[in-house]
Each structure stands twice: as structure tokens, then as C-alpha cells.
């Protein structure tokens, strides 16, 4: 039987993820975004348009949300015209946004009170992985809900990890993005120092990639983005800054000191001040370049 899927939030990630649902499964898709153009693009791919998130939910067995941050999820699910208004008992909400786990638990309580179920299922990897359906999906929620949602999650991701009860997917995702943000800023400082001191960038990359200083961003993000002078996202500075702050907030709630993360967060904040809010997060290197008076670029 054809399953009815709803998708709310058709941005850099939601757009390719929802296209994969149409492309890969026996699903009917109904979509909503506050930006009309994003909806029109999905309609051209075979989705139906809804006039609100509530209308998406009225017509769906499973509703997926892919929104920037906690207030956006609260507005789109709990707010007027939101998902909750339209959800039918027995339906499932999968929130794939990266948000505060406390908001996830608040939304889940409201969803469950309506006789529905919920998973938090934020994603790892990049927009390119969203396009080819190879995201890493970190899910929190009841095991049986996770099992029931596996076929739809498999349209979007190649690696599905059940992390624990509701909110656990968000916790794992926040920890991951805190570490990756720290690595991105550490690379910016290390590479700028080496170049300013007179060594060729290619030599630095060759050595750093073959010692314990090696990390994925020296291979996959920096060389194809900021080091080539390409600041297009990718993963935007504004989202990296948001995720660093989610980590700092969680650390504050739990009395876990995050001094290195706090310092990295301020470099992202400086990048925002230099106009990089919507640029790829590797553009954080611009802050260090600006201070050092050099450009760190692959020839
Ligand atoms: P985005 O800003 O490109 O897209 C968000 C979309 O949500 C936009 O189209 C916006 O119009 C829509 N929206 C906002 N409020 C809405 C509402 N109330 N109702 C309906 N639509 C609404 O963000 P993105 O890059 O797609 O990221 C989405 C989530 O995925 C974020 O939490 C982000 O941290 C996470 N993420 C992003 C990446 C990446 O590489 N971009 C990777 C992994 C995870």
C-alpha cells in the first residue's frame, strides 16, 4: 500500500532529502515550506503542495520536519497552523532538524498526548550526501517506532543508528558537530600559521594528512571549499554557530566544561561579523587570515 509522507522544510537539506523520497520509495509526498519557490520545485518533481504544516499532517501517515533550529520546530509543530493541529492518531512525526534535546522532548510529549509517536532523527554528513541518499541518521525514540520508520529513513540515509530514547539522536548530533566545529577552527589557525610563516600550503597539507594531526576536513571540506576560494555552502557558518551554541547550552545544563568549544564558537561568531553567515563553515579561516594578513589558498 502506498504510504503518505509529509515533508516540512525544503531548504539546502530538506529539498534533496524529499526528492529522494519521491525517487526511491512507493510513497505519496505532500510538502510545505514558508518559501513558495521551494514548494514549487518539489511540485515539479511530483509532490503535492500544502498551504500549511497542519495540512501536510492531515494528509500524512509520517510527517518529516527539516528546519533550522529549536524555535522553528516549535513554531512549525506546536504553533498555529502547525503539524500538531493536523496529526491523526497513529501517525508519526520524524524531526530531522538539529535542535536542543529539551525542545525535542517537549514536542514529543505534545505529539504523544495526541496518540501519535515521534522520533528525533538529525543527520550527519553534507548536502552532497543528502542528494545521493547517503546521510548518516542518528535516531532517538522507541525501538519499535525506529524499526517502523527504517524504510522511509533508508530513502535518505545509508547509515541508520538508533542512539537511545527520545532526544538521544540530538545529543549525539550535537556532540559530533561540536567536535567537527572545533576541528574546522583548529585547521584554520594551523594552516594560516604555517602559510604566514612561509611554508607552502600544499606542503603543510601533505604533512598534516600523514600524522596524528590528520582529520577529515583536511581532505573533504577545506580543499574543495575555502582553500579554493569557494565560500558557497555546504554547511553554513550560521548553522555551525547554532550547533556550537547548542553544545555550550547542553554543557551548561550538565556542568560539563567546554572551554575549547567556547573559543571555537567565538571564531564562528567573528566570521558572522565579517559577512560569512551564509557561507560555508570553512570560511571561518577568513577571520584568522584577516588578522594575519595572508590568504591561505591552493594554487
Ligand atoms: P536551511 O535554512 O537551508 O532550510 C530550512 C528550511 O526551513 C528553509 O527552506 C525555510 O524556509 C524552512 N522553514 C523555516 N521555518 C519554517 C516553518 N515554520 N515552516 C515551514 N518551513 C520553514 O537549512 P538546512 O541546511 O536545510 O538545515 C536544516 C537542518 O539540518 C538544520 O538543523 C541544520 O543544522 C541541519 N543540517 C544541515 C546540514 C547542511 O550541510 N546544510 C548538514 C547536517 C544537518
UniProtKB/TrEMBL annotation:
One GO biological-process annotation of the entry reads:
organic acid catabolic process
Where does the 6-phosphogluconate dehydrogenase NADP-binding domain lie? 4-164
The record's top EC class is oxidoreductase
Domain 3-hydroxyisobutyrate dehydrogenase-like NAD-binding intervals: 167-287
**GO MF annotation terms:** 3-sulfolactaldehyde reductase activity; NAD binding; NADP binding
What EC identifiers does the entry list?
A: 1.1.1.373
Task: Please provide the record's keywords in A-Z order.
Answer: NAD, Oxidoreductase
* Top-rank taxon, per record: Bacteria
Q: What family does the entry list? A: Belongs to the HIBADH-related family.
What is the recorded name of this protein? Answer: 3-sulfolactaldehyde reductase
Q: Which gene encodes it?
A: yihU
